[in-house]
Write a structure and sequence with these properties.
With 558 residues, the protein is an alpha+beta fold. It is 41% helix and 19% strand.
Length: 558
Amino acid sequence: MKTMRKFIICVILGIFVFSIFGVVAATRSDKSAIARNLNIFNSLYKELQINYVDSIDADKSMKTAIDAMLSELDPYTEYISEEEQEDFKTISSGEYAGIGAVIMQRDNNVYISEPQEGAPAQKAGLRPGDLIVAIDGDTVLGWKSDKVSSRLRGQAGTRLKLTIKRPYVADSIITFDIVRGKIQVEPVPYYGVIRGDIGYIMLSTFNEKSANAVKQALVELKKSKVKSIVLDLRNNGGGLLESAIKIVGLFVPKNTEVLRTRGKSVLKEKIYKTTSKPIDTETPIVVLINGATASSSEIVSGALQDLDRAVIIGNRSYGKGLVQGSRQLPYNGVLKVTTERYYIPSGRLIQAIDYSHRNPDGTVARIPDSLTKVFKTRNGREVRDGGGITPDVEVKYPEGNRLTYNIVVNHWAFDYANRFAATVSSIVSPEEFVITDSIYDDFKRFIDPDKFKYDKVCELRLDDLRKVATHEGYMTDSVKMQFDILEKMLRHDLNKDLDTNRDDISSYLAEEIVRRYYYQRGQIIVGLRSDVAIDEAVNVLHDVNRYKSILNPAKETK
């Protein structure tokens, strides 16, 4: 029955996709074909509804058809139903109504991951690790996080009763009476002075409030008489294009061209220039990027690179050079559709994947470096298109190990921080907090070796090698003896491994503990202490000649 149902939906999808693509590419010569295929689809679906043995959910099957059609275009063109628009509006407006807490799915239940500082959840006393048991008397155990989230949200000023089970405390079932509020998504979760004289600004998203937030941070940092600025765009997936233009305008002269967008028609090219007086056009700037820096983040980093206004440090960015717009549809639906490509000041398009040219199996791949073209920055430096923003200075991060990965992904650090916060009322400031010997030893005792999931890579690889050696006929007695010796040498000792990897583990543990007392701001401060990209930024900014030579190498060699 399931196979037949899948087959029927595939038939619907095929005809629906074919007919809609016909509408998009319509010309006078194929209007009859469009009408014919739409008529076929309409008739087929009507027959299914009348004659198919089981009932068909019209909304669900149509949504499936629409999503399948749009997936043939690019990942950014999508249909958003009326029920799904709250998250869409939150991204652009930077606010929503609810209790202000990040939740997470774990063990088939939903837990509080982090209450937002100053939000109703934090004011009420919710803590990381709280298991959400019931909302307004209805049990939510076994629910998915999206369903719980929809119950937690609601109009500002409305009340809800939230029952939780708190770990590591007596009388752990607690009920909170919380008034929902208007929650602000803070685009700049932290800014401050680092390493003595460098202003640091972390920008996490591009919404309607981003430009003003960066401007405010910049003004405050200039009052501190910082000598340079680090703008951190790592893991920033983008947002509003207009916000990116305004942020670039804080650092370059008014009327500077930031980008051009082009749609189907060359006549529809739009030119975006800065419109306000800048805050600072002289102070040295470093922009941090990585593989998750995308969209509007790449407009800012790419424009500042092309204009030779900032040194870009980190790893190659994601490579999204497409612009989306929204179109209202019947019954309050919205189509978010890719309408244009954008080109930054050098004239390059940094889009890394050409979705219009797919492999025979339907997959797409990044444009190879060999097919990219060279463009020039304002000072004549060579930059390339087609693959995101390549940093001026690349950062090599230390390789993570499986032990640390397991500690993080299996929540050992998260759970220990919850227990720590349940017994320790306060700690020193984030700038001063460190993992002492006593804390680390306590953490080691907290880990139960019988429950610890260890990715024993060496042992697994050795087993594979044994099988290959046996299969190839090399497993003599002497070889077997050597394997046995090697197996004993490579056998994991959890206590020893925890000591060997203490520095790496301690950095994660410190962030988790500090987050219980100082929230996201404190976590960021602790993370910056052991950030190799920050170290590289400091090296560049404290070496004036190196900074200048990166932005204008030709001038330095004369």
